[in-house]
Structure formats: structure tokens, C-alpha cells
Amino acid sequence: MKPLRYFAAVTLLVAATSSASAADPVFPPGARVGMTPLVGLNKARAFTGFETEDQGVKVLVADLPAEAYGEVANAFKANPGGTGGIKPESIETKAGLAYYTVENAKDGATNVRRYSMILPGPAFSGYVAVQVPENASKIYTDDAVRQMFASAVIRVEVPVEEQLGMMPFKIGELSSFKNVRTLAPGAALILSDSDEKKGFEVAPFMIIGLIGSTAASPDDRGRFAQQIATTIPGVRDGRITTSEPVRIDGQPGYETRIDAISGKDNTPVTIVQWLRFGSQTSMRIIGSSPRDDWTKAFPRFRAVRDGIRPRA
């Protein structure tokens, strides 16, 4: 069932939040979904959400595609009795009408109670997953989790400073890009002049992040750069026009340029990919622009690239 794919797509983790005032919604760093945390929950260390000190109770928050909420809502309305003994419920939140499910499950040998909620956002769907082990179920009850769900709120934008502070590197120049968004909090960042609703590809944008691999040797860097370039998302009919070694902030790197088609409107784009090689990882910097805007966009891309520094 397609809507359940959205719930399953995000690892089911879990549940309510920090020591802040019970009336105040709390947003995990980088998240656009927040809520009033239940007593005993603090910001999680290894994922975006909240957890208890013993990491037994967990709450995961995430963004899903904008269409996910409508598909889930329509499916639940069409089958209000649910499937497999899991009955969908609705709840009013500060963000709007949300839908959630509750089920018993196993986490290894531990019996757990799992809750999954989807709620509407302006250009995305908010998602919250809660997992409560059996030994905590008398404190984190169904009613308590439902109360936490009802407090859910959405923020359209995450403060730029908050997003940049989560990255494993410093970005000293944003080149007047209008929007800054973490694609994966603490892992990848997008700078853009357009947005999700219009499509990023209709205007210049950049994606900056680390990849967990590097070239096996200096002689392998060209092959590695071209292979990685074929994985740029949303690109069709790509053709590499140049690919050559460069120095980036004094470190070995590779610059690859591609002409391609991108997006639902089949926008002709020119793309530059810079790789800066480390011993175990590589920094990947992608700049994409409609071909007609390339000469103005490229200096902006290069200024952002040259302003990136490692954190001390």
C-alpha cells in the first residue's frame, strides 16, 4: 500500500521531548517539525528528534514529499478500518489535521509500541515516529503520545545560522542565494534561488556535502570524479564537457562540467561538480544553473566553494 511506504521509508524511532516548558514547542536542530516534548525527553544525539537518557524512548521527526500527506489522507479515508489490525486515527494539531497509526512491534527481543504521524506542511509533509519500549509504557501512554502529537507545529524556514552550525564544515560565503536548506541535517546543504514548489532547477542552486568515499589513488581521481558525476539527482541526458584536476583550498580536487536536462520542465542546465579529496571522505560541491544564466551563476558558485573551511 503506497501510503504505508512513506511511514516505512523513515526508520521507525521515537517519542516526546525535552526539559523545556511544557507549553513551548521545541524544534530539533535543523527540523521544520516541532512539538511540546513529554517529560524526560531530550534532543537526540544520533538522529533528528528526541530520546530519553537511556535511549529507550525515541522520537524521530522528518520531512516527506509534499504529496505524501494527501496520498496518506486519501487512503485512510478510503479505508477507515485500516489493514492488518492497524486502524488510522486523525488528530487536530497546530499545523492542521494529522493522521497517525499505533501498533505493537518488536525491536530485537524488546516489545515496543510504535506511533507514526503525518501532518501537512506548506511545501512538504511533516512526519513523526515514536517508539516506546514496554518497560516505559506506563509513563509514555497512548494518551500522552497523542497529547504530544496534538502539540505538533510547523516552521516554514529553519534559521540559516542554525542550519550552518550543524554542518561539519564552515561556509563563509552564501553568494546572495535566497534560500538555505539542509537536505540531511548535518550532512548536506542546498543553496538556491528557487524553492521546492517551483523546482530548484529553474534557477541557480548548489548542493554541498560530504561523501563517504574517495579516490583510491591520485591516478584514480579522474575516473572517480566522472563516476560520481553520473549520480547527480534529477539530471537527464547528461554529457561531460570537461573534467580536470584542480587545487581547492590547497588540497587536491577535481572539476567536472556537464551539460544536461533537468526538472519537470526539461530545463537545459550546465552543472559544475567540484570534489575535494580527503583521506577517507570527499567534499562534493555541485552548482547547477539554467544554461542562459551560467556566466552569472558560475562566479557565485566559485565564491561559495572558496569560502568553505573545515571546522576547528
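[next item in queue]
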Amino acid sequence: MVIRRMFLCFVLVMTGSVVLADSWLPISTVDAPTARAAHSAVFTRIDGTDHMIVWGGQDSPMIPFANTGARWTRSTDTWAATTTTNAPSGREGHPAVWTGHEMLVWGGDDGLNFLNTGGRYDPVTDTWRSTSLTGAPDGRFGHSFIWTGDRLIVWGGAIGFGGDVNTGAIYDPFEDSWSPTTTVGAPSARDGHTSIWTGSQMLVWGGISLGNYVNDGAFYDPRTDTWTPISTTNAPSPRLFFASGWDSTNLFIWGGVDSRFRPLGNGKLFNTRTGIWRTISKTNAPTPRLGATCVWSGKEFIVWGGSDANGNPIGTGAKYNPATNSWTTITTTGAPAPRSSQTAIWDGSRMVIWGGSGECCNNWFNDGFAYTP
């Protein structure tokens, strides 16, 4: 019995509590941001202390959207509000990245317009600085937003309803300057695609291009400002609102909807070293859905939440192991209420789900839950 407990559990040294594997624990809602969806969240480690920063999103049926947020400290399970002084205007659907000392946000929409403004938030000083407008890309939504280690790449997205682009720019936070990316050899204009950083190149795949779902993609090398297409042989079928992730070798694509808005329960892995697509097993996979979140744990892709074709939120998920091509169902005991448009981050040992919306895009949440795989 003692051996079994040692195998199933690990000890959180900071709190002294014992946490079972495959289990959920709620995080505090005291001083948490207002309930919202379509917000951003990043994981940070500052002076050895782990934090999650939540910002922006839709927190009411009316505009303007939120330009508020808060920083959650894992060790104390406490929230501290982020300042709104010099913060970007309220928005939803904006991406965010952590640069190592700042959170960068850019783009999204404010309910009336697609935005080409952004900001840089320093959690140590609780201050915002705006990003330059000089040379910035057109305002957009559903774009790539990739941190390379010293630069930010913005690419693609929608600049208006039905108006996709294949343009982009690289932002240098040290110089607060933008430089355009080439369109020579670039993928077709699109939004709703996924993108990851391989360590030397940005990989873009899928999305919707001027009304057509696509299943092609390309590598972008910022050192040479060049694009290289990837194979479409055995690629996933065209889809939108799919879950995606990156394990340092494979791009993970799963779920979403097809062009007839039918939820999908299949996916593929793209090996960035070999350029080959591999089919993901369907055995024990999550039910078909769109808008699920996905994080990489270091061993498994964890897929959770989302909604069905009728907009009904889902509160289930599963873990996919690429080494064994197998799925394991996640417990629903203590899990968050079913939701979509939530954020998910990996904090080093757990997936943390926060916020999102319930049935029919109403009933926003301001709670969060940590899942230990």
C-alpha cells in the first residue's frame, strides 16, 4: 500500500499537500480577474517563483472588452491585479507571449475593429509600455504570434471579415521596431491557423484562406526571410478550431471542424525533422469537438474542453502519448465545469485551466483548476 501511494502521488514541497496523479484541484478565486473568455494567459517564472498572467478578453456581452488582468502566484495561490495605467485598449482574441521578462500582447479585436496596437507588461514593476505603430502590420485577428527568443513574429490573420492576409512583420522589443516579412513563397492568406517555433524556424499550418479550409503549411526562417513549404502527403484533412501543440519534434493537430462544421475526432503528427505526417490513434481519443485547449506536459499532449457543433460546452479530455500512439482518458472528478474559450498553460508539473464561457457563449467563468497528469 505504501509503495502504491508513492507511485500515485507526489508531494508539493511548498505547501506540504499530497496530490494524486490524474486529479484536479481548484485554484483561488479571491481577487481573481472578472469572469471572461477569449482572454490571454502566459506562464512566467520570476526569481524562481511561478506565475500565470491573465489579461484582456470579453467579460460582458457589451463593448468595450476588458483591459484588466491579474497575476496568479502558484506557491501562495493568490492573485494580484495588473495595472491598467498605459495598458493596451480592451480586446479579445489577442495572443500573448512571455519574453523572459515581459508579457507581449498585440492585435485582436475590440468588438468594432481589428487592432494593430499592443503592449509590453513587466510584472516586476507592474508597468505597461506600448509597442510602436511605426511599420506595424495592419490590425488583425487569428494571426501567428511567435517568440523566437529575441524577436516576435506576427504573420497572417484576418484584417476584416473575409479579408485574410499572408503578410507579417518581425518586432524587435529592444529597438521597439518592426520589419516586414517576405510574401515570396509564403503560404496563402489565412487566419485560424496554428504556428509553432522549432528553435530556428516558425512552422505555420492549416486555417481558413478566403473562405476555404486549407491543410498546407510552410516553414519561415527569419534569419534568411524565406519560406519553405511542407508536405501535404498524408496531412490532416482541412479543418478549423483544432487543438495543436509542440513537443520539440512533432506538431500535434487534433479535432476541430470540417468545412461543413462537423466536429472531428481525428488528427495527425508532423515530424519536423523527417517532414512526414503520422496518423494519431482514435482509440480512447476524446469525443469530437472544436476549440479544445492543448498543452504539452513533457510526455503527453493534454487535450481538454471545447464545444460540440451546437455550441454546447464540453468538460472532458484525454492525454495523448506520441511515443506509444495512445490516449488515456482524464478524470472528470473535480474537473472544471464544461467550457470553451478558456486558456490552458503548463506550469512545470500541471495544466492550469482558467476562465472561459459556458453554454451559448454566456455564463463566463473566473475560476481555474490545476490538473496533475
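[queue empty]
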